[in-house]
Specification:
The protein is mainly alpha-helical. It has a single domain (6-114, 121-233), classed as Arp2/3 complex 21 kDa subunit ARPC3. The chain is 69% helix and 8% strand. It is built from ten helices and two strands, in the order ααββαααααααα. The protein has a two-stranded antiparallel sheet with strand order 1-2. The longest helix is centred in the middle third of the chain and has 30 residues, at 132-161. It starts with 5 loop residues before the first helix and ends in a 6-residue tail after the last helix.
């Protein structure tokens, strides 16, 4: 994107939601949140030998399946907040919340519905998708608080610096949002995925935050490019 004159850079601007790329980003955002809630039912472990530092279990790393995809929700949340503003990001957050609740209700109804006479996997279905309700509750509570904090910090910083300082506000909002999100999620979902002692819990929380922030930091160049692309191609952004 060509460098804008200083007086243009100093103007704070957002695109009205419902225009341009907003609906596409919203669709991917909702899919990522719903999928992350489902795959979070499986705990993951990296490594074998136990290494601890006080209450923190440094190794092996204990994660959940949602850690693979969920950082992308924050990337898209950053894009929505930066380009479309806080209200648009809040709308996306609550839309994904509704989609997650729909998924939980659907899983529960299918679990309780009588299976066909030849169906032999009811126990497996309950074992895999049974914890999803608790996980979705944890995810929704954490993600709503985390996303709204993420959007509030990013938009607040943008209101002070306009187009300058994009990287700083992306990282600052990510750290604040991920700490709140991960702690709330871990506190509610730990028992659903078998985290029962303090060391494992602290490890789950600390590693979760570090992993998500690291992933978003690695994705930062791509995030910046996407934001600049959307800003450049949204006709109303530079009006």
């Amino acid at each position: 994107m060509a460098k804008q004159p200083l007086h243009v850079q100093d103007r704070v601007r957002f695109v009205p939601r419902g225009t341009g790329y907003y609906d596409t980003i919203l669709a991917f955002f909702c899919v990522i949140v719903v999928l992350s809630n489902i795959v979070a039912a499986k705990p993951l472990q990296v490594g074998d030998d136990l290494i601890s530092a006080g209450p923190i279990q440094l190794w092996p790393l204990i994660l959940d399946g949602g850690a693979i995809l969920f950082p992308l929700a924050y990337v898209l949340g950053d894009v929505l907040s930066e380009v479309y503003g806080f209200k648009a990001a809040r709308r996306a957050t609550f839309t994904a919340f509704a989609a997650s609740l729909l998924a939980v209700v659907t899983f529960w109804l299918v679990e309780k519905a009588p299976g066909a006479s030849f169906y032999e996997n009811q126990a497996a279905y309950e074992a895999v998708l049974g914890p999803v309700g608790q996980i979705v509750l944890a995810s929704v509570c954490g993600y709503v608080v985390g996303q709204l904090l993420n959007a509030r910090v990013l938009v607040g910083m943008k209101n002070r610096s306009a187009e300058n300082g994009l990287v700083a506000r992306l990282m600052a909002s990510t750290v604040v949002g991920q700490i709140a999100d991960t702690f709330i999620f871990c506190a509610i979902a730990a028992t659903a995925i078998g985290i029962g002692d303090l060391k494992a819990f602290v490890n789950y929380f600390v590693v979760g935050v570090l992993l998500k922030v690291t992933v978003e930091a690695l994705l930062l160049p791509a995030t910046v490019r996407v934001i600049r692309f959307i800003k450049k191609n949204e006709p109303e952004y530079w009006i």
